[in-house]
Design a protein that fits this description.
The complex is a heterodimer of chains A (221) and B (621). Chain A is of the alpha+beta class and 221 residues long. Helix content of chain A is 29%, strand content 33%. Chain A has seven helices and 13 strands. The chains are: A alpha+beta (221), B alpha+beta (621).
C-alpha cells in the first residue's frame, strides 16, 4: 500500500512541484557593521502558485490570498524592526512574480541572531530562540554561519504531497567582506575570484536532511 | 428411508444456514450498504491470480508487517464466493457500521485473526467469539459468519463534550487580567511596591488554584461520563451482535429493503436524505449539520435514493447508477432535464480534443422548482419553521424572473479540454559573475499548460456586449480579432483568457487559436458519431482521452523521473473513459465506462494487472 500511496502522491502532486530560490547575503564591514539581504524568489513557480491561489485548500492546508501573503510577510518584517542593533529595515513583496525581498543594517553581526529568532518565532513560540546563527570575532577575524535543523524538523512533519514543493529549490549563501578571505570551511562553499566573497548554493532538499550544510567558517586575512 | 429423509433435511437446512445471504441481517435503519458479490467476481479472477499478484503481497506486507501467517487468499478462511457486505445503520444515540462475510475455514480464520490481534481482549460469550480492539470496535464471529462491528456514539446523555464550546479551547491556565493603575504604581514606595506585588501574586495563585480545581472537577465528570458511555456502547454492540446472529431482523420484518444488484461485481445503495454535496459541510460545522447554511446549494437537488453497480465485463468496466428522488423531486427533474443540449455545440468539439464535459438543463423549470425543493427539504429537519420556509419560497418566486434568467443562461454548457502543451513562460532569476555579484535576469522556461474552453448558451447578446464594453472601458479587457482578451494586470490565472459572444454562445477560452476557430464556425470537422451521440442524446456527458493526455504530459522534458515512470506505466494500461447522465421515468441515471484492452480477459483481471503494474513500477525504481 505504501507503493500505491506513493504513486497516488506522484499523480496528485504533479501540479505542485516547483522551484524557488532563497538568497541570503551578508555584507560585513571591518568595524563589524553590515547589511543583511534576503531574496525569496518563487518566480519560476509563479504559474503554479497562481493555480494554487485559485483553490481554497491544498493538502488539507488553507490557501492564503495574495493580501494575506503580503500581510503575513509584512508582519514578520515589522517584528525585526524592534530588534536591538537593527536599522534601515526595507522590504518589498512583488506578488506578480512572487519575489520577496528583505534587507536591514546591523551594528553587530550577532544582532542578526535576534532577527532570525524573531522570524522563526513569528508563528511558533516553542522553538529554541537562543541558537546562534551568525558570529564574528574581530580579534580572530573569523566569521561563522551556523545552520540549524528547523527545516529538517518541519519537513519530517510534512505529508509526501507537501514535501514535493522542495524539489528543485535552492538556498544560496553570499558572505561579502571588505578584506580578503584567508580560509573557508564549508561543505559546498566557494571563494570568489577577488577573494572578497564566500558563496555556496545548496539544494533545499539537502537542508531537509541536515541543516549543518549551511555551516561556514570564514577566516579573513 | 427415514434416516435418508432426515439426513436430507439436515443437509439442506445446514447448507441453507451456511449460505444464508447476509443481506437479511442488515436492518432497515441502514442508510448506506455496499456489497461485493464474490460469486460474480471470482468467476473472472481466480484465487491463484490474486495469490500471485503484487497487490496481494503488498496488502499482506502492510497488514501483517514482518509476521505474515498466510501466503494465500484461502489461508484467511473467508468464503469469497459469497457476498460480503458493508453497512451503516443510524440510530438515535449509537450508529453502527459493520463489515460482514462468511467463513469457510474456521481454523484458518481464527489462526489469522488471533495471530494479528494477540494483544487484544478475546472472549467467548453466548456462543460467539469476540475480539475487542477498543470499546467501540469488535470482531465477532461464530462458526460460519464474521462481523466487524464499529460503533459511533452520537447521543447527548454521555457525551463528554455536550456542546462544542464546552471544551478545552476555553479552559486555559492563563490568569485573569487585573485592571492596573499604572500612575499609582509609578508613585509607589519600595515597600508599597513589594506589598502590592505580593497581593498580585496571591490573587494569581488563588485564581490558578480555583481554575485547577474546576478543571479537575470537569475532568472527573468527563471520566464518569466516558465510563458510562463505554458501558452503554458496549451493551448496544452486544445487542446488535445478538440480533445480527439471530433471525430477529428477518422474522420481525425489519430487514433492509433497498435494492442491491446481485449480478454486479459490486453494488452500492445510499439513502440521501441530505444532499451529497452537503456531506462536505459536516466537518465545517464541528459535527453538527446545518441545513440553513446550504440553502442555496445545488446539492439540494440530489435528494433521494442512489444505487450504483460495478460491472467488470469482458470488454469494458461499467458503473451504472440510478437516483430515485424523494417527494416531488421526480416530477421536477422530469421537467428540468427535459431539454437536450443545442446540437450546434457539437461543432465546437474536435476529435483531437483531450476531453469534454457537457451539461443541459431547463433553467426556467429549475428556478420554478427550486423554492418548493428547498421548502420540502427543510421540512424534513424542522417542521416548526414551516411558515418561514414558505415565505422564503414565495419571496424567491417573487424576486426571481425565471424567464429572463433562462434567457441569459439557457442551461446549455460545454467544457472542452483542448490540449496540454508546452508553452514558454517568463520568470526572474539571478545570475552571478566571477565575484558572485548578482543581477536579476528575465529568462524563459518551458512549462506544460492546459488549453481549455468553456461555452455557455445565452440569448442576452445586449447584456453580454455591454459587459465586454465595460471591461474595455475599465481596461480589464482588450479587443482582439472578434473577441476580447483579459489584460494581464487583471488576470490572476496562470493562463490567458479570451472571451467572445457568437451565435447565442458565450465563449471563454485560454487559447487565441481556439477563439478564432470557434468564431469561424467551430472545429470544422465531423465529430465522431459516438462522441456526438454522447453529447446530444444525454442531459450530461463526459469524455477523457487518458492515453493521449498522458502522452502529452510525457512530452514535458522537465518531468521528474518518478512522475515519468508512473505516467508511462499508466499510459500503457489506461484507456479512454466516458460517462453520461440522463433522466428517465422520474429517475436520473449515471453511467460511466472504460474499455478493457484486448490483451486482458476481463475487467477484473485488467484492474488487478493495472494495480500490479503500478506497484511493480514503483518497486523497481
Amino acid at each position: 500500500m505504501r507503493r500505491l500511496h506513493f504513486i497516488l502522491i506522484i499523480t496528485i502532486s504533479f501540479s505542485l512541484t516547483g522551484c524557488f530560490e532563497i538568497i541570503e547575503e551578508v555584507k560585513l564591514q571591518a568595524d563589524g557593521r553590515g547589511k543583511l539581504k534576503y531574496i525569496i524568489n518563487f518566480s519560476q513557480s509563479s504559474s503554479k502558485i497562481k493555480s494554487l491561489l485559485l483553490m481554497d485548500e491544498v493538502e488539507g492546508q488553507a490557501v492564503p490570498s495574495k493580501e494575506k501573503i503580503r500581510y503575513e510577510f509584512q508582519k514578520v518584517v515589522n517584528k525585526t524592526k524592534n530588534v536591538s542593533g537593527i536599522s534601515n529595515v526595507k522590504s518589498q513583496s512583488d506578488l506578480d512574480n512572487f519575489i520577496f525581498t528583505y534587507q536591514c543594517d546591523f551594528k553587530e553581526v550577532e544582532n542578526l541572531n535576534a532577527v532570525m529568532d524573531s522570524v522563526k518565532g513569528a508563528d511558533n513560540q516553542d522553538l529554541n530562540l537562543n541558537e546562534k546563527y551568525f558570529s564574528y570575532s574581530r580579534s580572530n577575524k573569523i566569521f561563522k554561519r551556523k545552520g540549524d535543523d528547523l527545516l529538517k524538523e518541519q519537513y519530517s512533519k510534512m505529508t509526501d504531497g507537501q514535501k514535493v514543493i522542495f524539489v528543485g529549490a535552492t538556498y544560496t549563501c553570499l558572505y561579502r567582506f571588505q578584506g580578503e578571505i584567508d580560509s573557508l570551511k564549508s561543505v559546498y562553499g566557494k571563494m570568489s575570484k577577488d577573494k572578497l566573497t564566500a558563496f555556496s548554493k545548496l539544494d533545499v532538499l539537502k537542508l531537509t536532511e541536515n541543516g549543518q550544510y549551511l555551516n561556514h567558517e570564514i577566516k579573513l586575512k | 428411508m427415514k434416516h435418508f429423509i432426515l439426513s436430507l433435511i439436515l443437509f439442506t437446512t445446514s447448507n441453507f444456514a451456511f449460505s444464508q445471504d447476509l443481506k437479511e441481517k442488515i436492518n432497515d435503519k441502514a442508510s448506506f450498504v455496499f456489497v461485493i458479490n464474490g460469486a460474480v467476481t471470482m468467476q473472472k479472477v481466480s484465487t491463484r491470480d490474486i495469490d500471485n499478484s503484487s497487490l496481494f503481497k503488498e496488502l499482506l506486507d502492510e497488514f501483517f508487517r514482518r509476521k505474515v501467517p498466510v501466503v494465500s487468499l484461502d489461508g484467511f478462511g473467508v468464503d469469497y464466493n459469497q457476498s460480503m457486505y458493508f453497512a451503516y445503520e443510524n440510530d438515535t444515540d449509537v450508529n453502527m457500521s459493520y463489515f460482514t462475510y462468511h467463513i469457510n475455514d474456521l481454523e484458518s480464520f481464527e489462526k489469522v485473526v488471533k495471530e494479528k490481534m494477540e494483544h487484544n481482549g478475546f472472549e467467548a460469550k453466548n456462543g460467539l467469539n469476540v475480539l475487542s480492539y477498543d470499546y467501540d470496535s469488535k470482531l465477532i464471529w461464530n462458526a460460519n459468519t464474521a462481523l466487524l462491528l464499529i460503533a459511533d456514539y452520537v447521543g447527548r446523555q454521555y457525551n463528554e463534550y455536550n456542546y462544542w464550546y464546552d471544551d478545552y479551547y476555553y479552559e486555559t491556565t492563563e490568569s485573569a487580567e487585573v485592571a492596573v493603575d499604572y500612575e499609582a504604581i509609578e508613585n509607589m514606595t519600595q515597600e508599597e511596591w513589594e506589598a502590592y506585588m505580593n497581593e498580585v501574586k496571591e490573587k494569581e495563585a488563588k485564581k490558578a488554584e480555583e481554575e485547577r480545581l474546576a478543571r479537575e472537577k470537569k475532568e472527573k465528570e468527563r471520566e464518569e461520563k466516558r465510563a458510562k458511555k463505554e458501558a452503554y456502547v458496549n451493551s448496544k454492540m452486544w445487542e446488535r451482535a445478538a440480533t445480527f446472529f439471530s433471525d430477529d431482523t428477518k422474522t420481525k420484518g425489519q430487514q433492509f429493503k433497498g435494492q442491491l444488484n446481485s449480478s454486479a461485481d459490486a453494488s452500492l445503495w445510499y439513502d440521501n436524505h441530505i444532499s451529497f454535496f452537503d456531506l462536505f459541510w459536516y466537518g465545517r460545522y464541528m459535527g453538527y449539520y446545518n441545513p440553513y447554511g446550504s440553502l442555496f446549494s445545488m446539492g439540494n437537488f440530489f435528494n433521494g435514493e442512489l444505487t450504483a453497480d460495478l460491472y467488470l465485463n469482458e470488454t469494458d468496466i461499467q458503473v451504472k447508477s440510478e437516483m430515485t428522488y424523494h417527494g416531488e423531486l421526480a416530477d421536477a427533474f422530469g421537467k428540468i432535464y427535459s431539454q437536450k443540449i443545442d446540437k450546434q455545440f457539437t461543432k465546437y468539439l474536435s476529435n483531437s480534443d483531450l476531453g469534454f464535459a457537457s451539461f443541459a438543463f431547463d433553467t426556467e423549470e429549475m428556478l420554478n422548482a427550486y423554492p418548493d425543493i428547498i421548502e420540502q427539504m427543510m421540512l424534513r429537519y424542522d417542521t416548526t419553521m414551516a411558515d418561514e420556509y414558505s415565505l422564503f419560497a414565495d419571496l424567491f418566486t417573487l424576486i426571481i424572473d425565471e424567464e429572463n434568467i433562462a434567457n441569459a443562461i439557457t442551461g446549455d454548457a460545454l467544457f472542452i479540454l483542448n490540449e496540454v502543451s508546452k508553452k514558454e513562460v517568463e520568470y526572474y532569476t539571478y545570475d552571478y559573475d566571477e565575484n558572485y555579484n548578482y543581477e536579476r535576469k528575465l529568462k524563459t522556461r518551458i512549462e506544460l499548460l492546459p488549453d481549455f474552453s468553456f461555452l455557455m448558451g445565452s440569448k442576452e447578446e445586449g447584456l453580454i456586449n455591454k459587459m465586454f464594453k465595460l471591461g474595455v472601458k475599465h481596461e480589464g479587457l482588450e479587443k482582439v480579432d472578434k473577441g476580447y482578451k483579459m489584460i494581464d494586470k487583471w488576470n490572476d490565472f496562470p493562463f490567458d483568457l479570451y472571451f467572445a459572444y457568437d451565435q447565442e454562445v458565450l465563449i471563454t477560452t485560454t487559447s487565441k487559436k481556439q477563439l478564432a476557430q470557434f468564431i469561424n464556425g467551430g472545429s470544422g470537422e465531423k465529430l465522431a458519431a459516438d462522441k456526438s451521440k454522447l453529447v446530444t442524446k444525454n442531459s450530461g456527458a463526459m469524455y477523457l482521452d487518458v492515453p493521449t493526455l498522458l502522452g502529452q504530459i510525457l512530452t514535458y522534458d522537465d518531468l521528474g523521473r518518478s512522475e515519468r515512470r508512473v505516467f508511462t506505466a499508466m499510459q500503457e494500461d489506461l484507456q479512454s473513459m466516458s460517462a453520461k447522465f440522463f433522466n428517465k421515468g422520474g429517475s436520473t441515471f449515471i453511467e460511466a465506462s472504460t474499455k478493457v484492452p484486448s490483451t486482458e480477459e476481463n475487467g477484473a483481471l485488467y484492474l488487478l494487472h493495472f494495480i500490479d503494474h503500478m506497484i511493480d513500477t514503483e518497486r523497481n525504481r
